[in-house]
Amino acid sequence: MSVAPKRPDPPVVGKVTHHSIELYWESAGQTSDSGKGDGRLRFCLQEADKSQGWGNVHIGYSYSYTVTGLEPSSSYKYRLRVTSDHGNSEFSPAITVCTTKEPPSGEQLHRIINLTQDIDKLKKILETGDNLIDVPDKFGYTPLMVCAQKGLTNIIEVLLPYGADVNAQNSSGKDAMMLASFAGHLEVVQLLRANGARYDHQDKGGSTSLHWAVDAGHLKLVKWMIRDGAAIDVVDFSSKWTPLMRCCAMSGHVEVARELFFAGAEVEKKDKDGKTALMIAALNGHRDLVQLLVERGADPFMSTEFGMSALDMARSFDKKKVVQYLEGVMEKSRKEKRRVTGDD
Fold first, then answer.
1. Of all helices (H) and strands (E), which one includes residue 294?
2. Which CATH number does the domain housing residue 259 bear?
3. pLDDT at residue 60 above 70?
4. Whether the predicted pLDDT of 298 surpasses 70
5. b/e map of 54-68 (b: 16 or more CB within 10 Å)?
6. How many CB atoms lie within 10 A of CB 106?
7. How far apart are CA 281 and CA 267, in angstroms?
8. 85 and 136: one domain?
9. Whole-prediction pTM value?
């Protein structure tokens, strides 16, 4: 007489990690000899949920299964049922398995920094000595870079004594100070500088930390960086723009430009296309910055090798206020020249 399979033993525990549990079982001769069906056994593995209900995690013919996606240091309960051509067995007694503690990892370190900023947990990971301090995230940012961008000074103060590299650069060449500079975190920049961060680093586009601070128009930070010794006229690689030229192209921030002038920024320096800061400001419509440049000695009559002046560029881009101002300046200059030479 053919009968359903007998109640199986609980699953046997194999390899256990912080996020997975391997379970396996044996058929123990539970096959049918009646000739009905293919005689194979099918197994149903269930896991208890928090309410002690049960849910299927695996149904199939294999004699093992690895449950994944589990939480570290957590208990899980499993039971097994066998099905043959003649019916189902009872479920096995349940077995309880606990996942292991999550090992320290760069991913864990980044998770703490991005989500909880739990300093005690952070220190525990760093104290393992597993050399995780500069492990990059999926965007290529080290923990220090992430903190610099976010302005997490308190976390940076934890990372630095463990040897975080203040001058490490990501795939685009940006370092922690460049990220902090663009975000305007003065206190972070000061802390990084006190721990060896350098102003002469350039990213893959040739921009320095000062370029990035100027781009974002962070006046207080720009002032401090200049007084701290940041080079004023370093050019980037693509456009050959100095920080002053970048100011003229990007924010048009008059007070930032004024600080660069006070520090000795070269007014008539030309970029790769022969444009001066005045020309760049004019074609971008920064009327007040154009006025400041003229007042600081920029020559409105200067032109590129193709004969384009700042006024020509302003006209080409329909920057009416700039055109009106430059026309007035140039007419006044011509009148003064005629008066001096007696050509009136």
1. helix 287-295
2. 1.25.40.20
3. yes
4. yes
5. beeebeeeeeebebe
6. 18
7. 12
8. no
9. 0.74
